[in-house]
Amino acid sequence: MAKPIPLRVLQPLLLTNLNILPSSITWQNCTLQSDSWVCVRQTPNDNSPAETVIVSLKNTNNVMRRPIRADSAIMHLTEPIIALKAQSRTVQLFNLETKERLQTYTHEEDITFWKWVSQTTLALVTNRSVWHWDVLGAKAITPTKIFDRQEQLENNQIINYVVNDDESWACLVGIASNPAGGIKGNMQLFSKARNVSQPLEGHAATFGTIRLDGASTDTKVFAFAVRAASGEAKLNIVEVDHNSANPAFPKRLIPIHWPAESNGDFPLGIHIANKYGLVMIITKFGFIHLHDLETGTALYLNRISEETVFTTARDDEGQGVVVVNKRGQILHILVKEDVIIPYIMDNPACADIAYKLASRGGLPGADQLYQARFENLMQQGMFADAAKVAANSPRGFLRTPNTMQRLRQAPNQPGQITVLLQYFGSLLDKGALNKDETLELARPVFQQGRKHLIEKWHKEKKLFCSEELGDLARPHDLNLALAIYKEANVPQKVVAALAELGHFELILKYCTQVGYQPDYNVLLQHIVRVNPEKGAEFAAALAKAEGGPLISIDRVVDIFQSQGMIQQATAFLLDVLSNNLPEEGNLQTKLLEMNLLNAPQVADAILGNEMFSHYDKPRIAQLCENAGLLTRALEHNDDPVAIKRIIIQTEKLPEEWLLNYFGQLTVDLSLECLDEMLKVNIRQNLQSVIRIAQKYSDLLGPTRIIDLLEKYRTAEGLYFYLGSIVNVSEDKDVHFKYIEAATRTGQLNEVERICRESNFYDPEKVKNFLKEANLSEQLPLIIVCDRFNFIHDLVLYLYKNQQFKSIEVYVQRVNPARTPAVIGGLLDVDCDEGIIKGLLASVTPSSIPIDELVAEVESRNRLKLLLPFLEQTLAAGNQQQAVYNALAKIYIDSNNNPEKFLKENDQYDTLTVGKYCEKRDPNLAYIAYRKGQNDLELINITNENAMFKAQARYLLERADPEIWEYVLSANNMHRRSLVDQITSTAVPESSDPDKVSLAVKAFISADMPTELIDLLEKIILEPSAFSDNPSLQNLLMLTAAKSDRGRVMGYIQQLENYTPEDIAQACIEVGMYEESFEIFKKYDRHADAADVLIDHVVSIDRAQEYAERVDLPEVWSKVAKAQLDGLRVTDSINSYILASDPSNFLEVIEVATHAGKDEDLIKFLKMARKTQREVPVDTALAFCYARTNQLPELEDFLRATNVADIEASGDKAYEEGYHEAAKIFYSSISNWAKLATTLVHLEDYQAAVECARKANSVKVWREVNSACVAKKEFRLAQICGLNLIVHAEELSDLVKQYERQGYFDELIAVLEAGLGLERAHMGMFTELGIQLCKHHAERVMEHLRLFWSRINIPKMIRATEEAHLWPELIFLYIHYDEWDNAALAMMERAADSWDHQSFKDTLTRVTNLEIYYRALSFYLEEHPMLLTDLLQALTARIDVNRVVRMFLKSDNVPLIKPFLLSVQPQNKREVNHALNDLLIEEEDYKTLRDSVENHDNYDAMELAQRLERHELVFFRQIAASIYRKNKRWDKSIALSKQDKLFKDAIETSAISAKPEVVEELLRYFVDIGSRECYVGMLYACYDLIRPDVVLEVSWRSGLHDFTMPYMINFLSEQAKTIELLKKDNEERKVREASQQKKEDDTPILGSRLMLTQGPIGSSPSPGPYGQSNGIAPQPTGGFRAF
């Protein structure tokens, strides 16, 4: 038997299954900090963005992918926090769950290694030092330097950094190549306390702790592993920071066995499994070394990974180690707890290690050894050692009450503590005690008064808290007992302790936490008596508990009232009723009643805060009225009679409150109350009524209030009321009534104000009222008439009443702007002019609108009346425009030198005055319009009066383009007349070039070329200031070119100052090419002249003649280009040579090449090469040599210096069929690929193959192969083919090529030859198999057996299926794990491919369950004798019920009887039915009985009915058994009686446990005289037969002798029962008495506080209403809220 392995290797994850690239699984990209997370950075090869994959090892389905680009990424030890490093210096931390950035830091040096060393600390290692960064704690915002790196770590790759738990020790590990071979490990051990470093040689290191025998604290150890260059490996374990109280730990230097196959291997990681005290060393090659930490002894060695390991980490629970290898496997190595101890104990030398390891890790396997040692020590009297063994026993299996009893009985050594206490001491040093140990230790400790020890052990969690321990502690320390009760979860005693300690506020919190429900009524009564204030707080907490009140609020109030605690009851109710719920109405009423009767001021405050709204308001209103709280009574009253009764007492009601109260009443009730208040005492209540009316005017309605006040004839009231609303009211009646009331009360100032400011009165009505009022002061009337334009009525009224003073007041003080209307009115009534002039003289002119005044007077033909007034106004310095307008009109009408006034005065309105003059004198209108630049008016007046000369001069003077456009418009019927005056008069008279230029532009814009030419000729050709103006000359020529071309040639010769370029271009644009040519020729612009001849005249001959005449290179170049464009290639080349111009060589080469002018082109190119070294020139020259077959010249040219694109020339020569020339080209540049193709065309195949080999190009090999196959050069073709088929994408084309030409054997030969190539791929093996299927079927199976693993099986499957190669097809299905198709193919082609064993093995692996049933049908038809064997193989996979139905349908159930028997334990209904039917048919009653007794899933009644009719008694007996099993007692017994199976009948009646069934059967046996059965019934159904029935039957039938044994036994048992009951009754009485005494002596809450007795009898009873000690509880309608 193989020895069990003590380690278990789990693979929680394979990284490649998560689409992680194998290239990303490296030490740099894949990081593992703990057993919680693995982090991989990868950059896909398909140009996808880089991403970081984070996988949770606790939940492998939790895979996070983030588009993070960083140099490095590591996950936190346990939390979803990732640390990222970029640019080797910047570090950032992110929380992946909250997506929050936690920290950012940029270091001053490059960070070469980093690692999490604790939950909050990140270690950063640079080239010079080591830093710690407390990133999640609060110690440091920036990293803290720990130590500097030593020299021996320079040029080392840092692979690890470890610290101990308190970070007092650290070790940095690096590796480097060893010159002697292998990997050298260097370490730097640093002590923080000493601030010193020590260099060490080692590859892996770690820190840990171990508890040594006899030590009170853990010993700190440092372990590291090293493998020297010589191959020797060692494990070092040393103690650091030795504690003098502990025994010394001897230094361990243990050789490590290194397997022979692990050369080059070295320790990669070392970890301590703290739970077991084991050291695990992981090597790079995947080996694990297991050592004991205390002794260093090697325990186990094995290989856990075939791939190299690059990172390791210890798991959080300290039970194993996690590693990652190059394949991407995450391996978790754990200790097999049930195997490790037996494995170690197999080595006798390690028995002591196993013994300690079992105790340290609580491992099974050493229990027998501990038990034997314990017994041996006890027998030897070494009780202290035995106690230690029991205390250290694995899983505490020896820590039992029996062990403590034996240790208690052990004798004590003099001067030493007892063995039991030593046992407890060992346990306390090691850990915690169990329940029995805790109680056993606590009793003597409490008895000795050493309570502090219990407290100490309790704080250290070394005691097992129980109710019994709390009872022991209670007499000594109630707080300690409370803590124990809490931890032991004894809520009733916790509550009692809290109440006894007075911590009432903690009781509810505790009960809520633990879900305990005490009797809160009793508890509250007790607390109220002890501490009323705390009682109120506790009651409030109970009532407001989450989830609903824990106590009835009514009950709480009753408790408070019974104690006379009105104040506390009030405070409680205010607290619990704060939510103001409808169902709390009776409690709200009770609260208010209680305070209204005893403390009205409290009730008033409660009502004032409006805390409640669901109490009995009528009841409270009556109580408030009785208590004198009238405001509260009114607030709660809805009875109008009561309200009116109370509200008239205004002296007792605050006025402000009364005002607010009326806002709560209805409109009708409010008016009734106001009416009542005025009727009862108008003098006292008028002010209040007015204030109420003012405040609620909008609500009550001003009309109704006015009617109410008028009812009591109080004008003063009306005045004050309306005065408060008139400023905000828009009611006309309100304003009129206010004016009326103010008038009657003599408040004329208010009348004047309202008339002036109000916009809502009826002016007509007010005007008439004021006229009728006949006021002494007419100012209100004046204001109304002024505002609403009743000026005529006002003047008429005042004039009739001879109140001229009022008129003066109006125009002087009220509104001087109305003076024109007043003057008009006075003129209408034919007032004396002296009065009018005097009135005008009394008004300030600046305040009078002169326009209106002039209009009023002018409309009445009295304008001269204003002359003195206007002159006086000017003399006063008034510069209003209206004054000047009026004076101008007067001067015009009076013909008082108006021209002078109009020309010299600038103050009048030219438009107004001009309009006034149009009909009187057009010249005056022209003067006014010209002065004001009123353009349109001036044009109209001059057109109407034929004043075109004046208009022309004005236009030239005005110089406005818009005016010019307007007058020169074609719609202007006077344009011709105006143009004549402009040409003949205005322009010649002008000397301003800008204005003339503007006029010219206007003519141009108006599209008047003829008129423009006439204008320009008059300016330019005739002597003038503008004759030499270049712009005008240009304009003249341009205009002539567009409208009169005949004049242009003359202008060219006459004029000299125009711009030739512009004019020539303009001529070209309009098609005047000869004129353009003449201009260029006149100014010696030969190149431009040639362009005109070539581009526009389109005469190359004239251009050539012109070039010969001027003989200039630039002209020859232009002519050459034109000749080239005209395809006169030879002439063009000659012209280019005459011009010595090779610049257009590209076009010349292109055109000459297409034209076939190679000889001419060679001359041009030779000329061009003199000055140009261009690639196109040399390339074209070389190709010309090739096309003209000048091969020697071509070779000389190529040998000479040139810059030709030889490859392009060769390509072109190859395309055009000049293969010899192409060969020269390609040979000169050693282009083997193209040379090979060229040689193919030259039919030099051998040389072509050699060139193809040099070129080594797929395309070349393809072309050469195709050519060789076409020429049947199969040897050379095979050479090419072998270089093609190694490229998978070329294989299909090659195959098609061979197949199209029918060379199948040659193709197979090529493929077979290619199988031995190093680059042979799957496609080659697959294609060879396909070809063999098509042409050599007999070789297919051999090919498949040899190469099935390298074939594309799906493709091969199609080929074999098409070729009908069934054995080969099934072979492929099986090797492709296509078990379903394999099985189907075997069944479909059974004659060729079926084999039972092979088919059975295949069928057990199929995934489609339907194939199972198809296979069963196949076997039923073809191989029925093998069905049982097939079914046995498929039992676990098929639906048994379906199989049974299938065979039932085909009536072949007997064939599967063995199968049915094998699956019947599954107790399936179909199986049971089928098998039972088969057994009945076979009359196998024994098997049938076993079936129905052991399997109950069948139709019992149907089967029983079938069996009871069976002819064999055995089957009827089975039917009776079925009836009995289904509690059909009557049927079962009847069937048994029928077959005289009385034993079965007796058993059935006994099983039924029904006395009536038993009694009936008993009487049956008596009736048939079966005395044996009668006695059997008495025995079997002893407990079911009543004694009286037995005596009756016995007496009636004379069966006393047979009945006597039954009676004797019955009487004996009856006597015993009575005696037992008497004894139990006596013991119960004694027990109850003892319990009663104990309850009487033991207080419930630690003192004699009888919580269960209700109120104390001696407490004072509550007094009646009105007494100071409270009120007695009274019912409030019988309603209970809870």
From TrEMBL:
Compositionally biased spans, kind Basic and acidic residues: 1629-1641
Membrane topology term: Peripheral membrane protein
UniProt keyword annotations, A-Z: Coated pit, Cytoplasmic vesicle, Membrane, Repeat
GO molecular function: clathrin light chain binding; structural molecule activity
CHCR repeats: 544-690, 693-835, 841-980, 987-1132, 1136-1277, 1282-1428, 1431-1574
GO cellular component: actin cortical patch; clathrin coat of coated pit; clathrin coat of trans-Golgi network vesicle; clathrin complex; cytosol
PROSITE patterns: CHCR (PS50236)
Positions with biased composition (Low complexity): 1654-1668
SMART domains: CLH (SM00299)
One GO biological process term: receptor-mediated endocytosis
Subcellular location: Cytoplasmic vesicle membrane; Membrane, Coated pit
Region (Disordered): 1629-1682
First and last residue of the signal peptide: none
Protein's job: Clathrin is the major protein of the polyhedral coat of coated pits and vesicles.
UniProt similarity note: Belongs to the clathrin heavy chain family.
Official protein name in the record: Clathrin heavy chain
